Amino acid sequence: MYRATTFSIRVTATPHFAPERSDPGMGRYFWTYTIEIANQGAIQVQLIERFWRITDANGRVETVRGPGVVGETPIIEPGDSFSYTSGCALNTASGLMSGSYRMVDANGRAFDVEIPAFSLDSPMERRILN
């Protein structure tokens, strides 16, 4: 489990290797990850955009930017949280993901919240990324 807190928004990431969706012989490795976004502040927030930086074991970087997460732009009340599960495929047996969420609070203030960097590890190969 990986955690980061920015402006009273705590983001927790939990990755899992999915061997049933992977095919090492074809150079395909798949992970699911669950993200929990907890509003520990005193004001309502809405997630409006996501930004991901995905790095494979060869140092190849892919960036992903788009509206919301899993088709939603959730509103998170103070003391509440929102969770979702998504997935990531790589051509290498390990990698890293990190990023940020663009949030807007009830006063219209936009800010970025850190998604903690988390490792995508498979039992197929252990490599250390620089």
What this model shows, in words?
The protein has strands at 2-6, 9-17, 29-39, 45-56, 61-67, 75-76, 81-90, 94-105, 110-121. Strand 8 (94-105) and strand 9 (110-121) form a beta hairpin. It contains no helices and 9 strands. The chain is mostly beta strands. The chain is elongated.
SSE topology:
Layout (H helix, E strand, L loop, with lengths): L1 E5 L2 E9 L11 E11 L5 E12 L4 E7 L7 E2 L4 E10 L3 E12 L4 E12 L9
Antiparallel strand pairs: 1-2, 2-3, 3-7, 4-5, 4-6, 4-8, 8-9
| C-alpha-based Rg, rounded | 16 Å
Order of helices and strands: EEEEEEEEE
**Main sheet?**
5 strands, antiparallel
Distance between the termini: 21 Å
Specify the number of helices: 0
- Give the uncertain stretches in residue-range form: 126-130
Give the overall pLDDT as a whole number: 94
The count of DSSP E runs of length 2 or more, i.e. the number of strands, is 9
Helix content: under 10%
Structural class: mainly beta
Highlighted features:
130 residues, mainly beta, five-stranded antiparallel β-sheet, four-stranded antiparallel β-sheet, elongated, disordered C terminus
